[in-house]
Design goal:
The model has no long low-confidence stretch (mean pLDDT 91). This protein has a single domain, classed as Beta Barrel (Porin), CATH 2.40.160.40. It is mostly beta strands. It has a twelve-stranded antiparallel β-barrel with strand order 1-3-4-7-8-9-10-11-12-13-14-16. A hairpin with a 4-residue loop joins strand 1 and strand 2.
């Protein structure tokens, strides 16, 4: 999976080189549109777990190490992140790379479900024009997972995302609900509410704390509420060449509710914005 991340980084580098090689044409027009779109919104950094309401263009690869109550550790390589593209004004499409899940020690390993997400930015103002953003998401996962690494049916997750900045402090959040297209009694409907509080230091250092809440309707955990507190830090964006940049972050999810199927989860996130 690390090789896959390197392949995508090389692909991004190739796209950037196309822009430098040609002053006119498809790539020049596309990147110009991307720059104009991003200039109209706040310039915060993407959090570790909360999906940012901002429109981003990057390749992202995350890793998590989840410790279950039984003591079994699940390694999640990819965490359903992947290629993020801005194809038009106010629109972003995320095409995830299916995560590879390693269960230690006995369960079979395999790829998880494939996901995609479409963002539509409804309103935004950059730091000179209100420092805020409001975005709608449409996310869908397809049951492509191997063995028992995913859901049995497609799951649709409509979401609203929001953000507000106050000088070097910003708050980014999402509120959504997962709606299985079948087998609801087994999969369940999950209400998710995530909020991230970030502070910028020296332009490149972004310490943060996230509150990641899930309330379960139906399904195995019906009636339970789970809340993680996730302290962490994101470093970036560091310019590599032309439009290509590098961002890295890490954090640690800690369950704050008595109900928690997993706990003490380290997170590593690597991104290549372009």
């Amino acid at each position: 999976m690390r090789r896959l991340a390197l392949v995508f980084a090389a692909f991004v580098l190739c796209l950037s080189s196309k822009l430098s090689a040609a002053q006119d044409g498809f790539f020049a027009d596309w990147f110009s549109m991307v720059s104009d779109t991003q200039a109209a919104q706040p310039h915060w950094i993407t959090p570790l777990a909360t999906t940012t309401p901002r429109l981003e263009q990057e390749f992202r690869y995350d890793t998590q190490w989840q410790t279950h109550n039984s003591g079994v550790v699940t390694d999640n390589y990819g965490v359903s992140k992947g290629l993020e593209i801005i194809p038009a004004n106010n629109v972003e499409v995320i095409v995830a790379v299916p995560p590879y899940v390693v269960n230690n020690p006995d369960s079979p390993n395999g790829f998880g479900d494939w996901q995609f997400l479409v963002k539509y930015r409804m309103a935004a103002g950059n730091e000179e024009h209100g420092n805020y953003i409001l975005t709608a998401f449409f996310q869908m996962s397809l049951p492509t997972g191997q063995y028992e690494q995913g859901a049995l049916n497609p799951v649709i997750t409509p979401t609203f995302a929001y953000g507000k900045g106050f000088r070097n402090l910003d708050v980014q959040g999402t509120l959504g609900i997962s709606l299985p297209t079948g087998n609801v009694s087994a999969i369940g409907r999950n209400l998710t509410w995530n909020n991230t509080f970030q502070y910028r230091i020296f332009k490149k250092i972004w310490p943060e704390t996230e509150l990641n809440l899930t309330h379960y309707y139906q399904g195995e955990h019906s009636g339970h509420t789970l809340l993680y507190a996730t302290p962490g830090v994101v470093l970036g964006r560091f310019r590599l060449w032309d439009r290509l940049a590098f961002t890295v972050g890490g954090g640690y999810e800690i369950a704050t509710t008595s109900f928690h199927p997993t706990n003490h989860i380290p997170i590593l996130s690597v991104r290549f914005p372009f």
